[in-house]
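Holo prediction — adenosine-5'-triphosphate.
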Amino acid sequence: MAAIEVEGLTKAYGDTLANDHLDFAIERGEIFGYLGPNGAGKSTTIRQLMGFQSPTAGTARVLGADVRDEAALRETRARIGFLPGELAFTPSVTGDEFLDYQAALKGGERRDELLDLFTPPLDRKIREYSTGNKQMLGIVQAFMHDPDLVVMDEPTSGLDPLKQEAFNRFLRAERDRGKTVFFSSHVLGEVRRVCDRVGIIREGRLVTVEDVEELLARGGKRVRVHTEAPLTAADLGVDGIVDFAAEGGEAQFTFTGDYDALFAALAARRIVDIEIDEPPIEDVFMHFYGGDDA
Ligand SMILES: Nc1ncnc2c1ncn2[C@@H]1O[C@H](COP(=O)(O)OP(=O)(O)OP(=O)(O)O)[C@@H](O)[C@H]1O
């Protein structure tokens, strides 16, 4: 059984279809990134998965519990960790008091271990917290009862690059222990480092669900080559050259063809320098799906 199964999930706010017949499944033990620009409908999906809002049509099952079945969902909640977009807290409580309260509700056996990795100032009042500190406190509470599934709304917003990397390492280790992670983001490059698959939502509709490695493999490589004599794409005469641009002896292109053919064509030139890299994942998506964000 999948960890999350979304079937025809639809949510209308008046005339706005925030979620429009969404269908996708998240397997146990995977990290799934839910991506889309602002207002695409990510939080709306998450609120329905957590049972905070009921679908207009369709449904979803979370660890087997139908989100329309309050009793089933209530029982399942102990096995779910949740990080909302905005943490709700009483402004006068300290981080420690907040965690005590959360631990009393759902358990907190991994609290100390998590506080070694994520370091909010526990004795300060949460209203004095920076965005990043609030986010770290939220991450600790989402994982401290050792849930099977964790659902997070933009967990990396506000984290500095080092903490973000620590968070990615932590998520991968959790995945390797069999946990399922579903989280939203609007920055594709950020999730590329950690997600197994990504789903892209735009204007309430699911544009695609992709395996990240496969997508990057299809997206080819970014080639920069500096030759003594200027190059043109036609000179090379190789299939799979996209977005060719050259200035003087410096040519750049995305390559999705056969490397033997490319190297045979290049072997006939004097090469001053060459670089072959993974392209930015943003470029790969633009190439396949166009559009503005994501
Ligand atoms: N309670 C509500 N009442 C009316 N419209 C809403 C409500 N909540 C969300 N919407 C609308 O539904 C659409 C999807 O919003 P949602 O918050 O799910 O997007 P999002 O992808 O999470 O965006 P962001 O990245 O900005 O958080 C938007 O057009 C938004 O204005």
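READOUT: Residues 13, 16, 18, 36, 38-44, 186 surround adenosine-5'-triphosphate (CB under 6 Å).
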